[in-house]
Amino acid sequence: MKNRSYMQALVDKRVAIGLFIWWLINLLQAAFTELAHDEAYYFMFSQQLDWGYFDHPPMTALLIWLGSFMGGEFGVRFFFTILQPLYLWILWCIIRPRDPHRSDATIFLIASAALPILQLYGFIAVPDVPLMMTAALFLLCYKRFTEDESVLNMLLLGFTMALMAYSKYHGALVVLFTLLTNPRIFTRSRIYLSGVFALMLIVPHLWWQYSHDWVSLSYHLHDRNGAFAFSNITEHLLNTIAVFNPFFFPVYFMAWKRVKSRNVTERALYFLPILFFIFFTFSTLKGRIQPQWLIIASFGLIYILFYYTREYASRKLRRYIIAVGWITISLTVLARIELIWNPLGIRFEVFDNRPSFETIADVAGERPVIFGGSYAIASKYNFYTGKTAYCQPDFFYRTSQWQFRDDDTKAAGKDVLWGILIKEKLPTPEGMNAVSLANGQKFIYTEISDFKPVRLVDIYYNEELVPEKMAGGDTLSCILGLTNPYPDTITIGQDHTQLFLLLSAKKLRRIVPVDLQLVLPPSTTKETVTTMTRIKVAIPDDLPEKTYDMGFAISRTPLSFWYNSPRHNLEIRTEK
């Protein structure tokens, strides 16, 4: 017993030292690698803390905000780097053997560090990192709850469920799949009470969603869906193999046949990779799958690889696992060097950001910049220059958290630049200016004097009076109520201002100009005026038969636009 305790302490110490060294490497990487697009976007979240955001729950924004006093990329990422060694230590505590061997630490660390997805998601500031941390806590509390259904363990389990909900919505899959691997747990009343406790804790986030028309659910479950393409499946399969180490996949299959779980928590770890893979494989029917959505599978893959290598692998196979593990780690070292110094001169989003955006800032001077295109570019401009920028939601791309900010309203009446980043080799549109950037792109822009936004004009119509089905060539006739919240008059039909009918079905987008001349009087602190008008617009006769999201938007050239009205389901038929 004494020797076993000594060996356990020795192995634990080696695991802790290995994770600590890994953390130090991630700290250096976090400090010297420029921000990816999404990281800059989440940095924008952190500037206005809230209970929710367009794309994700608030945990990512909170972690970035906590590190903001440190400044730079290091401050954005600092608390994310801390989470990885913590969640891997928790995983070790869950799966560590009762009869420790000296080689256990080496096997566990190589099984973890040889996963490319964990190498990348060990230092970047994205929601997947707090999801991994809170999922590890959930699995630990689940283990304790299944061993002792005390009130404390019940509350801790509910608390970790809430933490996952505040981290990333994929946490719901962790809970669902974990419980499905243990059907008997559904006969236990306290598992339901833990769920009720979790719901109570996430009420602030649910209220935020309700107050914002459940925008996150609408986006993730509806707006981002695309048409089926066979390439979605092949891309998903190849990405999965790549991020979880292609050298290990033959071993994973052998391990699933041999490794036997010792308890219900290990059974959950055993099945999580399979269930996540099946779920997202079916999800390819509705669009592309991002490889990091399967990152939770890392826990299960580490578990089965660790125990298979430890207890079942032949000496030759064990040498293979250790060897390819070290080879993979060596390759990731080269990739880390490339991310910092870019000796290969690759054009990628983490290179040449500061000089590129400083060039744009030199052109803009003190004028705010309104970016079209990617939602992240305005965030990067603000991060690397400290100057004001805004990203206009784009019907032909997507909307984002920017729709809940008022940066464009603050720029009203000022001179601004509007522009987008395009590839250097593309021609500059007539009437636009262009400046080349260090990142291999160019910024094409135009100057707008006395900027007048129209994004917040509210357009209302009675959905009950709008047909649910129409044919191409039919005329849509309905009464619109338009409210101008701005202190200046808006004239539709003049000053490059136009009303459009918007029709979207997955990736298909169509805009139809509405022939309308209308003056919208300004609002005052005492009075808001709604102007009523009847519009008639012909439905294009070449639209494919689909159900479209129909709505209305006001556009002021050259700005991009989004729906100014609620959306209505309109089924288009080719025949009347």
Automatic annotation (TrEMBL):
<dbReference type="Pfam" id="PF13231">
    <property type="entry name" value="PMT_2"/>
</dbReference>
<keyword id="KW-0812">Transmembrane</keyword>
<keyword id="KW-0328">Glycosyltransferase</keyword>
<feature type="transmembrane region" description="Helical">
    <location>
        <begin position="107"/>
        <end position="126"/>
    </location>
</feature>
<dbReference type="InterPro" id="IPR038731">
    <property type="entry name" value="RgtA/B/C-like"/>
</dbReference>
<protein>
    <submittedName>
        <fullName>Glycosyltransferase family 39 protein</fullName>
    </submittedName>
</protein>
<feature type="transmembrane region" description="Helical">
    <location>
        <begin position="74"/>
        <end position="95"/>
    </location>
</feature>
<dbReference type="GO" id="GO:0016763">
    <property type="term" value="F:pentosyltransferase activity"/>
</dbReference>
<feature type="transmembrane region" description="Helical">
    <location>
        <begin position="291"/>
        <end position="308"/>
    </location>
</feature>
<dbReference type="InterPro" id="IPR050297">
    <property type="entry name" value="LipidA_mod_glycosyltrf_83"/>
</dbReference>
<feature type="domain" description="Glycosyltransferase RgtA/B/C/D-like">
    <location>
        <begin position="55"/>
        <end position="208"/>
    </location>
</feature>
<keyword id="KW-0472">Membrane</keyword>
<keyword id="KW-0808">Transferase</keyword>
<feature type="transmembrane region" description="Helical">
    <location>
        <begin position="191"/>
        <end position="210"/>
    </location>
</feature>
<feature type="transmembrane region" description="Helical">
    <location>
        <begin position="268"/>
        <end position="285"/>
    </location>
</feature>
<dbReference type="GO" id="GO:0009103">
    <property type="term" value="P:lipopolysaccharide biosynthetic process"/>
</dbReference>
<feature type="transmembrane region" description="Helical">
    <location>
        <begin position="154"/>
        <end position="179"/>
    </location>
</feature>
<keyword id="KW-1003">Cell membrane</keyword>
<keyword id="KW-1133">Transmembrane helix</keyword>
<feature type="transmembrane region" description="Helical">
    <location>
        <begin position="320"/>
        <end position="341"/>
    </location>
</feature>
<feature type="transmembrane region" description="Helical">
    <location>
        <begin position="237"/>
        <end position="256"/>
    </location>
</feature>
<dbReference type="GO" id="GO:0005886">
    <property type="term" value="C:plasma membrane"/>
</dbReference>
